[in-house]
Specification:
Layout lengths: L6 E5 L5 E6 L4 E4 L4 E4 L3 E7 L8 H14 L5 E7 L5 E6 L4 E7 L6 E4 L4 E5 L3 E6 L3 H6 L5 E6 L3 E7 L2 E6 L4 E4 L4 E5 L3 E6 L3 H6 L5 E6 L2 E6 L3 H11 L12 H10 L6
Antiparallel strand pairs: 1-2, 2-7, 3-6, 3-10, 4-7, 5-6, 8-13, 9-12, 9-16, 10-13, 11-12, 14-19, 15-18, 16-19, 17-18
Length: 266
């Protein structure tokens, strides 16, 4: 194996975290902000790119790290190395309510495609790159744009999804239609495209967007019930506007509450 072989345990229900056990000289890499806690004896180091060692030379490393900018991520990642003689544990937490998905990349043909913000952490040696869409429609209307993240190697990687996760095993030629924002990731064998919803009423009044994704098997697909963009949109829509008063859950009761507590001014 080129990637470090790590053991792990996932804890929690709605707000999960993954605890990884590192043998001496084993390491794990993670995105900034996902670290939760660790034992003493683990050395933290900021690295340029993903630290997989698959790129050679200064220009290769710069290009590898530069591709991460296209996915909205930092040029740098954080590596955690066990420098002691005994086993040590480190934990990484999910950034918002949802589930953590463990992926053994050897079970997915050593390659898995996922949305840009799904990656949480991985065994050192796993390559975290980008996957360009070769189709104009998918790039323009697919929700994730022309670029998705690509995980390659023979080690463990961990993804985070919003809400509840659904795992679908598609047979050859079987098609699954999904809201573009609900896609977490899929096998490299899965054909991903977008399809116009169609119909004037659906387009104008449907409220579900103009397009949905079509995923054609064979392969494995992961779908999330609550994309972060949907969660953020609901929070923003419910937040009081600048300079306005919070009216509570209902406009009638909210207004009544203002009268009772003396906040209404005539």
């Amino acid at each position: 194996m080129t990637a470090h072989e790590i053991d792990y345990t996932i804890y929690g229900e709605e707000m999960q975290y993954v605890e990884i056990e590192l043998d001496p000289q084993e390491a794990v890499v993670a995105e900034s902000g996902s670290f939760m806690m660790m034992d003493t004896g683990i050395k933290m180091n900021t690295i340029f790119g993903d630290g997989s060692g698959q790129t050679k030379g200064v220009l290769g490393k710069i290009f590898s790290a530069g591709k991460r900018i296209l996915t909205g991520e930092s040029l740098f990642m954080t590596s955690f190395l066990n420098v002691e003689h005994g086993k040590k544990k480190i934990a990484f937490a999910s950034p918002y309510p949802g589930k953590i998905i463990p992926l053994d990349l050897t079970n997915y043909g050593h390659k898995f495609i996922c949305q840009k913000d799904a990656f949480l952490c991985a065994a050192k040696g796993v390559s975290i790159g980008i996957e360009f869409s070769k189709r104009l429609g998918r790039g323009l209307f697919g929700g994730e744009g022309f670029i998705m993240q690509k995980l390659e190697g023979d080690g463990m990687a961990f993804l985070h999804v919003g809400g509840t996760v659904a795992r679908k095993e598609l047979q050859a030629g079987e098609v699954l239609k999904v809201d573009t924002g609900c896609i977490v990731g899929f096998d490299s064998t899965v054909d991903y495209n977008i399809e116009f919803v169609g119909g004037i009423k659906n387009t104008v009044f449907g409220g579900e967007g103009l397009f949905f994704a079509t995923l054609r098997g064979p392969g494995t697909v992961y779908v999330q019930s609550l994309p972060f963009s949907r969660l953020a949109g609901r929070i923003i829509a419910s937040a009081p506007q600048t300079g306005s008063k919070d009216k509570g859950e209902g406009s009638i009761l909210g207004g009544l509450g203002d009268i009772l507590d003396g906040d209404n001014r005539f």
